Every structure is written in structure tokens, then in C-alpha cells.
Amino acid sequence: ADFSDNASDNISKTVLIDLAHDNNFDVEELNVLMLQLISRGLTINFFSVEDDLEKELLGKEKEEEEELEEEPLDEEKEEEVEEGEEFLGEEKECDEEEHPGKGLLNEEKEGDEEEEEEIPPIAFIIVSPQEKFSHEEKKTIDEFVDNGGKLLLIADPTRNGNISSISLEFGLIFEPDYLYNMKENEINYRNIFVTEFKENEITKNLEKIALYVTGSISSTDGGIAFVDQNTFSSMIESRKRLSPLALTQESKVLAIYDLTFMTEPYNGTLDNNQLIANIADWLASAIEEEEEEEEKETPGREQGRSP
């Protein structure tokens, strides 16, 4: 796997990991993936219960619902206010005469504060949430993806979770099953091999991976990794093609039905590390797509153009 360091190119780019929905996993279980992301110059942030998702994902502040009503002033108070305004006006003129350029410095300071505004993350990772996502949160995540953000959804059949409360928004169903193979497996019949892949950025350079108790994800042509004819579902009897990985929404939403393969030492089995590296590349690729969009929107950026 390529651990290339592109920190200078990806400065200020962050990946947000959800911890606000009673997520059924330990942060350390994402160490291998996080190391891959950090090696690509990305910063990892965590979303907690106290945070506002709309602000974190979209950079939007919630507008105050209640505005303070101004109390009517009587004649005496109006005169006091007018006198105060006149005094402040005189003081401002005097201050500008004594300290020319002070107003300009204040304007520059305000400009600096605007430049320091937080940049929304390029990707959002959700792992085994046990609490459902609210309607407002679903709308926010949907807008985030529409804006070009990447969404990684991870669940595991061995853990209680409510991943479908968000995955259904993108046409993905994490079935309540597990996949098994009695003929060929990784020590246990529920630890299966996957060797058939749909060619894309997630599956490049993959020949064989091992998943440790995985389930099937139903979608409309979103499957990108398929089990063989000897692998069955504990719940689904039909012989449809079963897939534990799916990619939808114009390759902006990736769903994976196993967390164990990302953890040590299981990441070192077969091509598992290559898959994790591909996922990191996919998450980081939102940077390049974002920069391409900015170049399209900025007029007059033709190479070799004279002033």
C-alpha cells in the first residue's frame, strides 16, 4: 500500500468521524485507516453529541429563532441616546485624527477573522451507530453529499446498530444477515473470501480479500464486491448476487459491512491493506474534485495567459 505524504497539498482538509450516535466501536479500531488518511495529509476530527452537525458538515451557523424586541424609548431617553451618539461621533473623529490608519487596521483584523472561518470536512465517516439519525441530520448529510462530500458507512453483523437509519437515504440496505461458506473460508465458516470485483477506484489492484463475519448490502446496482456460488446468506434464500460492499451516489457514498478486516492483525491478510489504502485514496480524492470545481468556477485561469 502507498503511504505517500501529500500534506502540503491537502492543508486544512479534514475528515469527520461520528461519535454522537452511541456508536458501537472503539476509535482505536480505525487506527489503520486513520494512519492512511494522516499519511495523505488529512486531519481527523470527531463529531460529538455537543456539536452541531449542520455547522460541522456545512459550515452553517444556526439562526436565532427569537429576536429581541426593542422597547420604545420615552422622550428623555431619546435625548440621552442622541447626546451619547453625538459624543461618540466626536470621539471617533478625534481618535482618527490622532491615530490615522487605525480604522484600516480594524478592517484588516475583521478580514483576518473572516479568513479564519472553519472549512467544512471533505468526508464524513459513520461506524455502527446505535441511535437513529434525525430528519434534520439526514437532510444535512444529504446536502453534504450533494455538495461533493464523501460519506463512508461501516457496519458489522456482530454489533447492534442502526446504520439503515441513514443508509436508506442513499438506497442502501444493510441486511440483518451474515454470509458464510462451508467449503472455503478463513478458519471459520463465517470468515469468507471475496475474489470477484467490479472495477473502480475502491477495488483497484484487488485479487482476494478476507472479511470476518460480514453481511450483504442490498442496492440498485451499487454492489462492487461479490461472493462466490458457495457463499450463502443466513437470511436471503434467493440466489441473487450478494455483495458486502456497495458504492452509490456517483461514487460519493461507500458502504462496507465489516469492520474487523480494517483492524490489526486482520488488515494484513491477503489484499485487505490494499483495500484500506484504496478507501483512503477515495476519501482523499474529494480534495482533487473540489479543486477542479474551484478552477472551473474561477474565470481567467488559463495557463500562459498574459496580464
UniProtKB/TrEMBL annotation:
The lineage of its organism: unclassified sequences, metagenomes, ecological metagenomes. Residues 63-98, 287-296 have a biased composition (Acidic residues). This is Uncharacterized protein. Residues 99-108, 297-307 have a biased composition (Basic and acidic residues). Residues 58-117, 287-307 are annotated as: Disordered.
